């Protein structure tokens, strides 16, 4: 991946560049010390990702992003923020910012955030290629409706996953497969989770023992993914309690007392445990939303 870093603090620019290049996360193809200078550079070199400071003297990060989007730039943005100003953070989310790096800069946080951005970029590109392939197939003589139905389910699932910040998690593919299976059989409610996992795991040539083993692996991947969703939503709530993604997903997919407990842990010391998650509720609500969006 290619990056441009926009920050009025030279030390921050150097630190970010060193971290991401030492971690093998990509190449910094330019840096700028102001929003106006950064916008000109970004439009010229078109990086995959822009790391941009929220507060800059001439033109803040939110204003700069608005300029870039108006000029047709479609890359990813990661906002760098030293202070938690709820109003400005809310504006950043409205501009489409999904990722924040907090100052003082922490190596572990930078690497984790940029790895997630990389995962989303890869998913976006894969989905784009799939859409083009399916569009080409639909021009052929065969009935396109089954393919269009499956694509629609997967697109809905991917949108929800990205909204909750788990589009790059390995369990996301398992969740998509489960939703496609449930839609295909027209389920009114979820079967027992063990049966559901093994139904998705069952493939031609797999023995019952192999299906059971893969079912357990699916369970673990989904549990980690749902726990990540809880942590992401709790983090959104801490930064901006009125964030629309937090308001929609947190009370719908989770018991809100568990969300508040996670927020309290984050607010106290910045560290969290595994968090309590109700997998069956999460998947049941997910299926309900997929069905609703299919019939809109």
From TrEMBL:
Response regulatory domain ranges (all copies): 2-118
UniProt-recorded Gene Ontology molecular function terms: kinase activity
Matching SUPFAM superfamilies: CheY-like
Record's keyword annotation contains Lipid biosynthesis: no
UniProt keywords, alphabetically: Kinase, Phosphoprotein, Transferase
Residue numbers carrying 4-aspartylphosphate: 53
PANTHER family per UniProt: TRANSCRIPTIONAL REGULATORY PROTEIN GLNL, TWO-COMPONENT RESPONSE REGULATOR
Name of the molecule in the record: Histidine kinase
Species assigned in the record: Gordoniibacillus kamchatkensis
């Amino acid at each position: 991946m290619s990056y441009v870093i926009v920050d009025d603090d030279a030390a921050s620019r150097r630190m970010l560049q060193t971290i991401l290049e030492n971690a093998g996360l990509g190449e910094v193809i330019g840096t700028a010390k102001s929003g106006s200078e950064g916008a000109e550079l970004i439009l010229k070199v078109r990086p995959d990702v822009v790391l941009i400071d929220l507060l800059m003297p001439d033109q803040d990060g939110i204003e700069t992003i608005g300029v870039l989007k108006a000029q047709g730039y479609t890359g990813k943005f990661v906002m760098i923020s030293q202070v938690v100003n709820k109003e400005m953070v809310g504006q950043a989310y409205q501009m489409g910012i999904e990722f924040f790096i907090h100052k003082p800069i922490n190596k572990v946080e930078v690497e984790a955030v940029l790895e997630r951005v990389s995962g989303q970029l890869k998913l976006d590109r894969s989905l784009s290629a799939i859409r083009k392939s399916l569009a080409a197939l639909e021009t052929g003589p065969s009935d396109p409706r089954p393919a269009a139905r499956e694509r629609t389910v997967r697109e809905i699932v991917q949108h929800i996953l990205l909204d909750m910040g788990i589009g790059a998690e390995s369990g996301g593919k398992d969740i998509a497969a489960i939703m496609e299976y449930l839609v295909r059989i027209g389920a009114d409610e979820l079967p027992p989770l063990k049966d559901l996992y093994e139904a998705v795991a069952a493939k031609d040539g797999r023995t019952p023992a192999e299906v059971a083993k893969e079912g357990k692996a699916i369970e673990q991947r989904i549990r980690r993914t749902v726990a990540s969703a809880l942590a992401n939503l709790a983090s959104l709530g801490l930064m901006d309690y009125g964030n629309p993604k937090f308001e929609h997903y947190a009370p719908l997919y989770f018991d809100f007392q568990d969300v508040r407990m996670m927020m309290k842990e984050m607010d106290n010391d910045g560290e969290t445990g595994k968090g309590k998650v109700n997998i069956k509720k999460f998947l049941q609500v997910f299926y309900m939303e997929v069905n609703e969006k299919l019939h809109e």
